[in-house]
Write a structure and sequence with these properties.
Elements lengths: L10 E3 L2 H19 L13 E4 L2 H12 L2 E6 L7 E5 L5 E6 L18 E5 L3 H10 L3 E8 L5 E6 L5 E5 L11
Parallel strand pairs: 2-5, 6-9
Antiparallel strand pairs: 1-3, 3-4, 4-5, 7-8, 8-9
Length: 175
């Protein structure tokens, strides 16, 4: 979707430089609180989705789950490309559903077909926030057999969001 943004004539953006400075500060703060520098790279894998009403979905994901809009390119209700940051790391890209360009392959997942697992330190507080914002909870908070605390919700487009404390298995060290 990033290539789609070149077609737009106006943009609603926040300063990338300010975001990068904030990220560097966060890395420094994180390093000082843990005693070692993590220097986590910027996200290089961006889950992406299309929406029937992208602007409404951006508002919902921000209010219900706490995603932060970084950029949204487009005019009126059309969103050519948007990025939402997850405050605990990573993010997603999304845009308005649109016809397939001539000669191109159709977008593989239509609106409402996206699924993601999002790591959060406090799923119970996030669940309460989602409920207060009117999210449809599909699975109430529960403890998994592998030590995670999880819940699931659906957004107004029908996408499914799973939130929990499981950060993934440790990666093998390079050697």
């Amino acid at each position: 979707m990033a290539a789609d943004s070149a077609d737009t004539t106006s943009a609603n953006t926040t300063s990338a430089d300010a975001r990068n400075a904030d990220a560097e500060t966060a890395d420094t703060d994180s390093a000082s609180s843990t005693g070692s520098a993590t220097n986590a790279p910027a996200p290089q894998v961006w889950p992406s989705l299309r929406a029937r009403d992208a602007r409404a979905l951006i508002r919902f994901l921000s209010e219900a789950f706490g995603f932060e809009e970084v950029v949204a390119y487009g005019e009126g209700e059309f969103v050519a490309h948007a990025e939402l940051a997850w405050p605990e790391g990573g993010g997603i890209m999304l845009g308005s559903d649109r016809p397939t360009p001539e000669g191109g392959e159709p977008w593989p997942g239509g609106p409402g077909t996206f699924t993601a697992y999002v790591v959060t330190a406090d799923p119970d507080a996030l669940h309460a926030r989602a409920v207060a914002a009117g999210a449809r909870i599909t699975t109430a908070p529960f403890d998994t057999e592998y030590g995670s605390r999880d819940f699931a919700a659906a957004d107004p487009e029908g996408n499914h969001w799973y939130f929990g404390t499981y950060p993934g298995a440790p990666r093998p060290s390079a050697g």
